[in-house]
TrEMBL record:
<dbReference type="InterPro" id="IPR045618">
    <property type="entry name" value="DUF6444"/>
</dbReference>
<feature type="compositionally biased region" description="Basic residues">
    <location>
        <begin position="60"/>
        <end position="72"/>
    </location>
</feature>
<dbReference type="Pfam" id="PF20042">
    <property type="entry name" value="DUF6444"/>
</dbReference>
<dbReference type="InterPro" id="IPR052344">
    <property type="entry name" value="Transposase-related"/>
</dbReference>
<feature type="domain" description="Transposase IS66 central">
    <location>
        <begin position="165"/>
        <end position="444"/>
    </location>
</feature>
<dbReference type="InterPro" id="IPR004291">
    <property type="entry name" value="Transposase_IS66_central"/>
</dbReference>
<feature type="region of interest" description="Disordered">
    <location>
        <begin position="41"/>
        <end position="91"/>
    </location>
</feature>
<protein>
    <submittedName>
        <fullName>IS66 family transposase</fullName>
    </submittedName>
</protein>
<dbReference type="Pfam" id="PF03050">
    <property type="entry name" value="DDE_Tnp_IS66"/>
</dbReference>
<feature type="compositionally biased region" description="Polar residues">
    <location>
        <begin position="43"/>
        <end position="53"/>
    </location>
</feature>
<feature type="domain" description="DUF6444">
    <location>
        <begin position="13"/>
        <end position="85"/>
    </location>
</feature>
Amino acid sequence: MTLEEQLAQLQNDYAQLEAKAASQAALIAQLIERIQTLEARLSQDSHNSSKPPSSDGFKRSPKKRSLRKSSGKKPGGQPGHEGQALKQSENPDTVIAHLPTTCEKCQTDLTKEAALPHFEPRQVFELPTQLKLHVTEHRTYSKKCPTCQTVTKAKFPQSVKNWVQYGPGFRALAVYLITYQLLPYARVCELLNEIYSESLSPGSLVNMIAECYEQLAEPEKTIKTALTQVKVLHCDETGLYVEGKRHWLHVASTPHLTHYAHHLRRGSKATDEIGILPAFQGAAIHDGWSNYLRYACTHGLCNAHHLRELAFVHEQLKQAWAAEFTTLLVDLKEEVEVARARSETSLSSARLAHFEERYQQLIAQGLAANPPPQGGWPCGKRGKPRQSKPKNLLDRLDKQRHQVLLFAYRFDVPFDNNLAERDIRMVKVQQKVSGCFRSQEGASFFCRIRGYLSTMKKQGENLLVALLDTFCGQPPLPKLLV
């Protein structure tokens, strides 16, 4: 073999080795990316993602820390707090007099002596000795007319429709236990049987729920109309299982109003049919999902979501800009709260410019720490560019910065969307307690009644009284606190 042939052979071998090394390097890069993805998935919990706290398990992670700063106040009630201690009644139902029988000094008999006028009262609040249902029998009699001899029979009250039925108070209690306290039907039957010795079937409870649902049609319409007119609206959605299939629960709420609706769809088809967002012209606070952004109202993004995502980028990916961005948002939130406490309506232009400058600097640092890989971003199954989590977060913070900082420009806009998340949380609890809804009707019944009760609770009304009036045919309408 000549020298030229040997050289050509060596060059060919080198090219093969170089191609093999490049192939292995690409494979290693893919494996590293896969490992990072799996590690990131395992490291996510409620403090650095949108996963619920119930998914964290029983072991408390040492990395979990609250983003709140200490107020410096001692635990418990603060000075000036009225408190809710048990207070003595001015009109006790029973009075038991305790009289001394002998003198504590000389042992003289005092049984025949009159008691002094002053006394020391102590009261015990207890359940009645016997809990039983109060039965009222309605009797209709007939009378014979002395003129024409016609026999006329009296009519029963409109509310008394059956030979035997439960009264509005009993029905109100049953519906309250199911839709507000979230007890399953069987446990409500068991509880009422234990207390009142009254056998009750789940079918009777279903009829009570259906009756309440029909009575609350007008209050729900009032709530929906009021929500379209508020200045700030909180929106959120979550999965809901109906008839074994995944549906979606949509909530629209304010500090005084709540509306729930379930739908087979998550997107615009559902929100359009619900009808609140299409007519809304104020500021909608949400998690940035694209479906909300299609509506022609002002939009504000939930910064609690951003803080969790920033915690993940800082703790798991070790990117320092994320921690600084967290500090920026928290500092701005505190400055807004201080200004609001001083009855100011906005921050000064100089302070806003200061925060906006810091904001832009941190965006630039984040983009520098997350450059696109050589050859561009890999594509997903549908051909869309698939970026890293930090890059997706940075794009949102950059392109929608006005929506992120809306709480600083408008003091009536909150920092986060926690109100809607709290309103949704108890419906998730209901799913965990009782499982999925067995019918479309059952889900609709629950959404309307629960939304009404949540609204009345926010407005300081007694829920049992509101339900009692509902079963009496006069459901209280919510106050239009917009």
